[in-house]
Amino acid sequence: MSLTPQLQPTDFAKLETIKDRAEREKALKENWVFRHEEPQGTRYTKGLHPLSTKRSWQSLDAILRSERNSAEALPYKELRRSRILAALGAVTGLLFIASGAATAREGFDFQKLNGANAVMLGSVLATVGLAIAAGVYYRRAEKGYARAVNIYNDSLGMRLGLLTPNGDYIPPADAAVDAEGYILTEDANTRIEGAQQYPAPGPAPAPAPAAPGPTTDTTAPPMSAPPPTTAPPPQLPPATSPQQAGFRPRLVPRPVAQPPVDALQPGRALTLLPRR
Predict the structure, then answer these.
(1) Residue 70's closest CA among 55, 57, 80, 83?
(2) CA of 254: how far to CAs of 251, 257, in Å?
(3) Out of 64, 128, 157, 217, which residue is the most buried by the measure of CB atoms under 10 Å away?
(4) CA-CA-CA-CA torsion sign (166, 169, 175, 177)
(5) Are 57 and 146 in contact (CB under 8 A)?
(6) 227: which strand partners?
(7) For the chain (length 276 residues), average pLDDT per consecutive 10?
(8) What value, to the nearest 5°, has the Cα angle with vertex 242 and ends 240 and 246?
(9) What is the 3-state secondary structure (H, E, C) of the chain?
(10) Which regions are flagged for Low complexity bias (predicted)?
């Protein structure tokens, strides 16, 4: 623990002298221990400063010892046993290396065990067993530190007067709170009694039908000649009765079909062409 960079301990004597509500809210965020789930495991930071370094649980020893409740919850026994078992495992590992070097010339024989071979076999089994036991107590110590972090955060909130012993947030005195504990407003002059009833949305009005218009086909067939353009019909004057126009109808003789010009010229033969 002494070789690991520690988080800065909290000065609770100074925090308990803060009277302003906004200052206490700020102090709670700055001294709160936050968890961050990383691929390499759970990491911890004090506050939410963007430049703060995320550290492992071994860095929590100094900050958890600064609060008496979290200091009492630290897993001293598990951590001490883990250290002792790790030290014994290191000793048995050295004994295994020494016994292996002593029996290097004769070799190892399971049928005819001598003293050196027995020491080497016993040291191997002891090293493996002590390593497993040290890992179990090490994992328990890690869980104990995670539980002590929760106690530290709760004690910090209670000392600042912002959390109840159950861990619930204490709203300001002028805030309006609903039945579930949510803050509705922080203004003392604005109170909301009960839930707000909003009218149910009615059905959307149906869109007005569009006026029927001439349907035109905008898609032209591929590789087709453009349709012939027709001139618009001439604008005729409005029809008037003969009495209004002031004239009498007269008869126009029907024109008689005239023969071709060639047929009227005398002395010209008529040429017959084959039908095409």
Answers:
(1) 57
(2) 9, 9
(3) 64
(4) negative
(5) yes
(6) none
(7) 80 88 90 91 89 90 91 91 93 87 71 76 90 94 93 91 82 62 54 50 62 52 53 54 48 51 50 55
(8) 105
(9) CCCCCCCCCCCHHHHCCCCCHHHHHHHHHHHCEEEEEECCEEEEEECCCCCCCCECHHHHHHHHHCCHHHHHCCCHHHHHHHHHHHHHHHHHHHHHHHHHHHCCCCCCCCCCCCHHHHHHHHHHHHHHHHHHHHHHHHHHHHHHHHHHHHHHHHHHHHHCCCECCCCCECCCCCCEECCCCCEEECCCCCCCCCCCCCCCCCCCCCCCCCCCCCCCCCCCCCCCCCCCCCCCCCCCCCCCCHHHHCCCCCCCCCCCCCCCHHHHCCCCCCCCCCCC
(10) 213-222
- CB neighbourhood size of 62 (10 A): 16
* pLDDT at 36 (0 to 100): 92
Which one-letter amino acid corresponds to residue 216?
A: T
Q: Is 252 exposed, middle or buried (0-12, 13-18, 19+ CB in 10 A)?
A: exposed
Q: Which residue has the tokens 């600042």?
A: 160
Q: Which two tokens stand for residue 115?
A: 């003293």
- pLDDT the model gives residue 172: 73
Which CA distances in Å does 241 have to 27, 35, 154, 238? 103, 102, 106, 10
175 neighbors 185 (Cβ within 8 angstroms) = yes
Q: Which amino acid does the sequence have at 28?
A: L
AA letter at 227:
P
- pLDDT at position 163 is 85
Q: What is the pLDDT of residue 166?
A: 82
Longest dimension (CA), the chain: 158
pLDDT on residue 175: 61
Buried b (16+ CB within 10 A) or exposed e, 197-207: eeeeeeeeeee
